[in-house]
Amino acid sequence: MPSFDEVLKEAGEFGRFQKRVFFLLSQTGITFSSLFASVVFLGRAPDNFWCRIPGAAELSDRCGWTLEEERNFTVLPLHLGNESVSGECERLDVTWDTSASCSRPLTRHGNHSTGNLPLTPCHDSWVYEQPHSSIVSEYDLVCGNAWMLDLSQAILNLGFLVGAFILGYAADRYGRILIYLLSCLGVGICGIIAAFSPNFTVFLIFRFLQGMFGKGTWMTCYVIVTEIVGSDQRIVGIVIQIFFTLGIIILPGIAYLIPTWQGIQLAISLPNFLFLLYYWVVPESPRWLLTRKKGEKALKIMRNIAKHNGKFLSPHYSEITISNEEVSNPSFLDLVRTPQMRRNTLILMYAWFTSALIYQGLVMRLGIIGGNLYLDFFISGAVELPAAFLIIVTIDRVGRRLPFAMSNIVASIACLITAFLPDDIPWLKTTVATLGRLSITIAFEVVYLVNSELYPTTLRNFGVSLCSSLCDLGGIIAPFLLFRLAAIWLELPLIIFSILAVVCGLLVLLLPETKGISLPETLEDVEQL
């Protein structure tokens, strides 16, 4: 009886069938990255808003004021009294009624000058020139409520974290393609509900669920792709990252063409329903079927793969050999039970955490959102494209471990140099910081590939999901770490990033090299790497 890898070589390791599945599943990267970065456009700060004085709406209707006229009567008196008061978070502590003058509504408040009129904080009476342009204007996430916008992104990352555990476990127990399709359905439904949420609490609930299902789509599509190709073709795990970057590049174009946040939310959510059509064209992972003692189904899929690739499997094949390892439901203890697995797991968890923390920190550090938001965001995505190409041309020549380590070390050096470069040469400081971001992007993409290659089939999806959950934890911590340390010394976050990256670079040298090695099927295979 042949082994799975022997049958895969005979059926074609990266033929027409695998290329089609790869292309179809790669589209998931575009929708997932759009969800990941969507807060930039969903949460755009409103261009012009002010706090409405009680009774102003009724008086405006009686007097026939335009919004601009109402704003002049509301905000200009504040400027006259105190130029530092913008009228966005404070208002005059007065109440207008229908008896007020349409031309001079403040005259009835006595002989006080406008500068002496009392002020009061604004709580829920904001007026926006574009009330539905973002969730900020939709749910009043301004002034004292501004922290809620950060909460919405933290909730999304929390959804990623929960999805990594729950759906990673489910994909190893119930199948890759089933969980992928259910996750796509969940992302689409939750995205629609979030777009029409009546209040911010409902929005947060479905933002969390969309993040959870979104992580399910991304992790399972990645595992399926790496499990149906040969060991020499697993570079597709890096190529699929290009589609993630394409989503980053496409997102500002979508936001530019669609003026409302609901439209943007629907545009990044609805395509997930199209992925449900994959039920008829993307099969279950035959590697997973073998681990669940479903050899006949696996062999049937392999014959179909061979047919589409123009190959032919021997009719004498009646069964594909699998390990004698008992199939059990995966748990965290399985990832740390043996010495090699324990070392791999701990190092990979740290690598995921560090990559996410530094990546997001450097993005915020570069200050790419400002000026022309759409152009700056596009450029920030384009910076990531060379990362995948650099990996593609090096990883099959020198292996995984060296580029993994060097990218972290270069990122560390770039962060350290940037911290001590003088501010009077901003172009050099930006260039070195960009080099740091390119390097950590390479590390981020390599860890995906290495993670999937260091776990046996029975634990692969669960292992990748669990380790990558530290990425979501890093994403939650990054903004707090950056801003708190920057308040002490502007360059202090870069010093911390540098230390984290160099430690990661040294640790990954302890991982086994997986270049050209078949995916491990059992714990024993991992221990022998």
TrEMBL record:
GO terms for biological process: dopamine transport; histamine transport; monoatomic ion transport; norepinephrine transport; serotonin transport. Its main location: membrane. InterPro entries: MFS_dom, MFS_sugar_transport-like, MFS_trans_sf, Orgcat_transp/SVOP, Sugar_transporter_CS. Residues 110-516 form the Major facilitator superfamily (MFS) profile domain. It is found in: Apical cell membrane; Basolateral cell membrane; Mitochondrion membrane; Nucleus outer membrane. It catalyses: (R)-salsolinol(in) = (R)-salsolinol(out); guanidine(out) = guanidine(in); (R)-noradrenaline(out) = (R)-noradrenaline(in); agmatine(out) = agmatine(in). GO terms for molecular function: monoamine transmembrane transporter activity; neurotransmitter transmembrane transporter activity; quaternary ammonium group transmembrane transporter activity. Keywords: Cell membrane, Glycoprotein, Ion transport, Membrane, Mitochondrion, Nucleus, Transmembrane, Transmembrane helix, Transport. SUPFAM superfamilies: MFS general substrate transporter. It holds the Pfam family Sugar_tr. Belongs to the major facilitator (TC 2.A.1) superfamily. Organic cation transporter (TC 2.A.1.19) family. This is Solute carrier family 22 member 3. It comes from Donacobius atricapilla. The lineage of its organism: Eukaryota, Metazoa, Chordata, Craniata, Vertebrata. The gene is Slc22a3.
